[in-house]
Amino acid sequence: MDNSNNTNVGNALKYLEQSISKHDQHQPIAFKQFLETLTQNPAIVLRSIFQVFHDMIKNYTDQCPDEYPGDSESIKFVKYDCRRLFSDNTDNPFFADRLFANRFISHIETFKTGAQQNKIFIFKGPPGCGKSTFLNNLLLRFEEYTNTYNGACFEVVWKLRKKQLGGEYKEYRTNPILQKMIQLLNTLDKQQEQETSGNGNHLDISGHANSLYYNDEKAPILIDNYIEVPCPSHDHPILLIPKDIRRNFLNTLLINSEFKEKLFNEKGFDWVFKDNPCTICSSIYAALLKKLKSPLKVFEMIFVRPYQFNRRIGEGISVFNPSDQIIKQNVLSNQMLQKRLNSLFKDSNQVKFVYSRYAKTNNGIYALMDIKANNAERLIDLHNIISEAVHKVDEVEENVISLFIALMNPEDKKNIQDFQSFSDRIEYINIPYVLDIQTEVEIYTSTLGKQIINMFLPRVLHNFARVIVSSRLNIKSDALLEWIGDPKKYRLFCDENLQLLKMELYTGNIPKWLSEEDIKRYNAKRRRKIIAESEKEGERGFSGRDSIQIFNEFYTIHSKDNKLITMSQLRDYFTVIRKDLSKLIPYGFLDSLLHYYNYTVLQEVKESLYYYNEQQISKEIQNYLFAINFEPGSVETCKFTGEKLEINEGFLENFEIQILGKNIEQSKRISFRKETQKHYTSKTLTQEIMFESKHITETELYKKLQTRYTYNLKEKVLEPFLDNKNFRRAIKDFDKNSFKTYDKKIKDDITFLMKNLCEHYNYTSVGAKEICMYVIDNDLAKTFTQIS
What are the pLDDT digits (tens) for 670-684? Predict the structure, then answer.
């Protein structure tokens, strides 16, 4: 064989050994070393399964800044970025919308502060909402987290030294095949011992703590340096400190620790002082103490290792599907180990090595995928364990403190409704279909790739998500109606059921088109009522699987090179191509969505075309605020601008028309003038200018007038262009050589318009041209002038 091949193989094996050894955290350490670790980082070492689970969630979740940090009515409905928890580096990502993330984090916060062992947490949601994906990814992250330093949990391993306990060596005769295997192991062991003798190391070829030595081919003798007994219940090592002295012991151990106050006073750490070790550990401790007469000698035989969670072998994490058969034999033991323990302690009754399958998830996670078939029976069997945290194994009582999780479809609730005594032990957490349009879009881009965004005109992709989400919302919202009153006042922006408004609120956005009065009335109490309605939504409509399939079909039909997907195509898909889908969409929603889209893009075009002289507008407002304090016919010099003003009805009327519109009645103009003058004298002049030393342009009244003035100017910005046929043709010719043939004014206006659409509203050059043609060809400016 080529020497280079031997070298490569050797290097590869060396890398394998180093890499695996680097991540091997399973080597037990002495109890004394464990206590040193505890004193260095008690917050990590002294954690229950619930506290570890809480820390895991917080470790993988990022809280985003509050969009409204100064909002006194905030209910802390903030955005949580859960991608690292549920999506990143997973085979099937789960997407948590803002509503579910807040609901989930709210429950998780209780894990840190109080005992949770008397509950089972059932995540309830309709088929296709992603429950199984959610749980699989959650357990994947938990397993990953517990293999890190910050996520480490600890368990007891006994190393019972036979020599110290006065045990005798035993002779085991074997059959010929076993003899041959033992000879081979013995030979390999001696070779390894020779190779490592230079540095004093010894590799235990068994992979365990027991070493094998033989004195004769025919009658090999198995000599155990010690018997290793891992706690089958994964007991936390601190529980082996007798309960009556545990508090004083920790008080002495953590004498200079800031953590001590937390440990002794917070309810989340009650388990440290109240819980007992399992019966096996208790029995071994008592038997050793009886034999050795010294607690310190007993603790020398206690070792600690990280608790290795492994879902695949059911260690620390057990997950059951409804079709998994129930194993009737629930009492587990190890007869060989039992015999060795009996021999060691000279009594078969001192230590009974029996435990149940529930012990494998003590201080771990026990999960049921869907409460039906065999899992319904499994859930009922958990009743006493959840209630009392105790399980009977033959005549032995076994402690079981686990995090119990289950998934459930709404229709499966009937499987447990006959057990009323169980109802107070269940805490339901809803996982509905996605109700947040931002998350729905994220699902589409994750499925088909982020490049699909570039195939849509701005807002069209999100409007597709709005159509899907509308099918999942309740038609009527009592909370919104109580707040808004008559929905017709927002007919330019919203549907009559206010679903478009609710979608914005569910993403954490307070729409700017709401009136100042309604924004002021959007208090904390109303916000909680609106968010609470989400608990009863998302159980019907298009499922998660349906929405991906529908979107994929829509995208496939309309995605073509250099042709952006438009709102008209979206409408036609649901009303012409797939009319069968419209039965799940609320009546009139598509029309309202198109209407809102038209209004929005019209405002974008107006905003992008509008260029105003801020200095001139500012002068006109300041002159008006000064002039309304004098009688018509006066000639005065404005103290704000220094301009000489002829104050007459015409001067005042011209400004008021700009603010209120040309069709405003005279009586309403006069009323507006009087109210403005009253506000100016009672607050602007006396309080803001004289007392607070504000300039007139910094006052509340000035800013309100400036907003209304510029808004009305923007509304009229398209009027000069609507009847100009050259304007439409010039837009079509933009970016072509023929565009150079138009006059300078049109070229400047259109170049300004296109630049702003691209910079401020994320249009591409092609998209900006398309949306301008859409606004002109559908005569949107005239449509909304008539409506308003």
Answer: 999 999 999 999 999
